[in-house]
Amino acid sequence: MKDTKLAAAAPGLGSMGIAVNTTPRDGAHPLRRIAAVLWRSDLRFARSGWQRVALALAALGALVLWLLPQAVVNDPLSLLHAQSVRIFYMVDDLQLSQLPSSFAGLLVAIAIGRAIFVIIVGLLDLLLYRRVTGRAFDWESMINVSLVNGFLMLSGVFVLANDGLRSLLAHYDRLLASVPTLVDLNGALALVVAALIGDFCFYWSHRLCHSNRFLWNLGHIHHHRNRNLTQLTCAIEPPLMLLQAAGGISLLMLPLLSKLFTTDIHSAGLALIVMMLADTWTDPSHSTAMYALESKSRLLKSLRRVLVTVGVHFVHHSREVEGRYGTGCNFGARLSIWDRLFGTYAEPGDAIPETGLFDPKADLCVNPLRYLLLPYARMGLELRGNAWRDWPRILFGRVDYEPPNPVRMSH
Ligand SMILES: [Zn+2]
Ligand SMILES: [Zn+2]
Asked: Are residues 196 and 336 in contact, defined by beta-carbon separation less than 8 angstroms?
């Protein structure tokens, strides 16, 4: 529990920065006092007595909460009656009705296998964590992240049910309808082009999330903060701001590019299976167990030439990278070719890198409240402590921009 011990000494809001004080005055509103206590408290259980039982129950709840998004994303049960399946990340789902039923059944079986594979990998991370990393599994981190993810998923339901957002998307659909199709593609070539377009869009939106303060501080930072990254302790991003989530911008770019290159992948045949298997292998991209396996196999390492394997993505989460990779590397979702082409590729080493933020003083976010709200609180304080003329750069400047009156609070 190296990190949670560190957490006790980690600076919280109360001890640092301009106009930061979470110690309420005598006579402060009770709610404010409760909020201050919650903000400062460290979610940490002793490994004995009733706390051990409480930890076991909380960990079980966290595991169920973790399984929930796996079910939402992959939905193995509904796949049995599926109308469509995902072939490759960021490629439009394939409608099954136009395929022979035996072939459609095979694709559904692979999709179910993909969902089960992610769950098995998550459980292997749990079982093999100490063997792979030499540290005990960080149960508190998993509970923290699961609570945060649970909240973010809930907020996503409200966002997607929002009429304003829906009408905005309807406008975009109408705009797309007016875009002409330039190239018509079919079969395996269509599938490859669709995968290239999808990953290209993801690459640039993800890279933008790492360079723009607004996109980074108000969203993508959540995904990067955990110092004990595994498939079970991986934070999703706030869906409240669709555009700042990695992939959010590409969701807008993708249909546009796809419209220019209309691609019909139904007749792709064997290529559909190959791409689905590649998608399955790269899906659990935050697994320490898979990192250990990959680092021992020359064959698996060779996949890095084309695919964003778990090793490649883990380096993206590293806080050890230096030099030209210091502001980020390996931005692709499934294909490593864009990073290689645009000079942001970093080859993984055999040892699993330390993960987390580049800032060595970064807050360890020892409770879900702080995990969720710290970036927003920090940006709010930066705005409050600086002149209006600095606000555009505080909000939308480069990630490494430091305002004239900096907030002495860690990320
Ligand atoms: Zn990232
Ligand atoms: Zn990630």
From this structure: no
Q: Choose among 308, 377, 384: nearest CA to 348.
A: 308
pLDDT in tens, 339-348: 999 999 999 9
What are the tens digits of pLDDT across the range 348-368?
999 999 898 877 788 888 899
| 318-338: pLDDT as tens digits | 987 564 455 589 999 999 999
pLDDT surpasses 90 at 314: yes
Within-domain flag for 120: yes
Alpha-carbon distance of 127 to 176, in angstroms, equals: 48
- Dist. CA 237 → ligand 1 center (Å): 10
3-state helix, strand, coil in the chain (%, to 5): 60, 5, 35
User: What contacts 321, CB < 8 A, 6 or more positions away?
Assistant: 315, 329, 346, 353
Distance 207 CA to ligand 1 centre (A): 7
Judge whether 372 lies within some domain.
no
Q: How far is the CA of 134 from the centre of ligand 2 (A)?
A: 22
Is residue 7, in this structure, part of any structural domain at all?
no
Q: Which of 212-216, 279-283, 318-322, 368-372 has the lowest mean pLDDT?
A: 318-322
Phi, psi of 111 (to 5 degrees): -65, -40
Domain containing 88: what range? 43-358
The partner residues of 58 in beta bridges, in order of sequence, read: none
What are the two backbone dihedrals, phi and then psi, of residue 94, each rounded to the nearest 5 degrees?
-90, 125
Q: Does the residue 399 lie in any domain?
A: no
What letter does residue 307 receive in the DSSP assignment? B
The rounded distance, in Å, linking the Cα atoms of 123 and 121 is 5
7 close to 42: Cβ distance less than 8 angstroms: yes
Average pLDDT value for residue range 222-244: 80
Ligand at minimal distance from the CA of 202 is 1
CB of 351 within 8 A of CB of 1?
no
Ligand nearest to the CA of 355: 2
User: How many domains are there within the chain?
Assistant: 1
